[in-house]
Amino acid sequence: MNYETIIGLEIHAELSTKSKAFCSCKNEFGAEVNTNCCPVCMGYPGALPVMNKKVVEYAVKAGLALDCQISLYSKTDRKNYFYPDLPKAYQISQYDIPLCKNGKIQVQVDGENKSIGITRIHIEEDAGKLIHGTEVEDYSLVDFNRSGVPLIEIVSEPDMRSPVEARLYLEKLKGILEYLEISDCKMQEGSLRCDANISIRPAGQKEFGIKTEIKNMNSMKALQKALEYEEERHKKVLSEGGTIVQETRRWDEAKGITVSMRTKEQAHDYRYFPEPDLVPIVLEEKWIDEIRKALPELPDDKRRRFVEEYGIPDYDASVLTLTKELSDFFEACAKGHKNPKAISNWVMGEILRIMKEKELDFKDLKIKPEDLRKLVDLIESGVLSSTGAKQVFEEMFRTGREPEALVEQLGLKQISDEDVIVELVKKVLSENQKSVEDYKNGKSNALGFLVGQCMKASKGKGNPQLINKILKDLLA
User: Fold this and answer.
1) Ranges of CATH 1.10.10.410 domains, the chain
2) Where is the Asn/Gln amidotransferase domain (predicted)?
3) Which of 98, 129, 287, 394 could bond to 120 as cystine, CB 3.0-4.6 Å?
4) In which band, very low, low, confident or very high, does the pLDDT at 327 lie, cut at 50, 70 and 90?
5) Residues 375, 383: Cα–Cα separation, whole Å
């Protein structure tokens, strides 16, 4: 039987405000445990929250960038549940009147644009963090630094039809939030977290199948792999006559499987009711318009501009605009350069390759944009071969030095003097008469051998294009 996969994502993004959602405690990652907390975020009786205006502003920014309707009136609610790291035993969130609703994101799937709906974006606070002991230490500790950190939850419509689409959606959403500079979106630090709902149904059926929820994927790769595993698991259960259980599962990266955490036969009753300690959020159109006018250039707009302004392919522009840091680095290199495509090739190739290998951010990159421009110029002017350029690039990455100095130090300056190349080629031809005869008898691969001998004779410094030309002229 053919099945159709249905996927919806719930994304939690921590906002990069200086202070927490409802108190003045610092909002920072990595501080000493329990140093950024106070009676408000620890839930002491009688401690009253106060709404951080910046949290509302950042949430509105996200809503506008994601084409949402912004509610002029919304409110906060108490979501009642108990976890050891949630000291109030309720979370301040939004329930029936979210700040933003009915948005969408465009993603490219197999070269075609697809619109994925966004049901809502609402504000809420984060819980603390449990630090579990070892098998020997039979206890857990609680760090309340994260308690009260502002979040936005972005809930998609169930519009995704494959794990690949889900990954593309999350990549696009992450990029937009980074461009807005409202979240650093570091999944490895938990500032961007993803829960996925997945079900399958027979092709053509309108009703949804029974879904499972996969909690807290912490990378794009984990999201796609977890969904692929669940997709196949659902199909196997149904094909064998079984029934899917509605449950919450987690992804076990080491084993490559999802593991059941708890069954979820019915929706949890969180007993929402309006937060009595916070006034409703009432916005003015004028303020929303001011935020809209101040929005930065977003990924889709930048991609189109890169194609028009720099003449690079749409594929290149799509890759180069995935993150704000990447797009800024490319533009700093390509602005005013005569060959932006060559710049694009180096950024998408060597720059991204070595940064992935070393697990670096752009702030850690020693290569300056102007030095990458100079490297490309040295190649195009014939001073440096493509092989030599890679050696120079590795040293630039390691030391941050300028390419011209490295070319001299490493002795990689390419020989492009025509008179010198002519004498070198003549010598190689005289020493390889059999290959000369082979070439003249129609064996075209003999030319490649002769080029190799010329490069060897020049100790790799000969200009290969010039060697090719002179070889053909002398063999004519």
Assistant:
1) 418-475
2) 328-475
3) 98
4) very high
5) 10
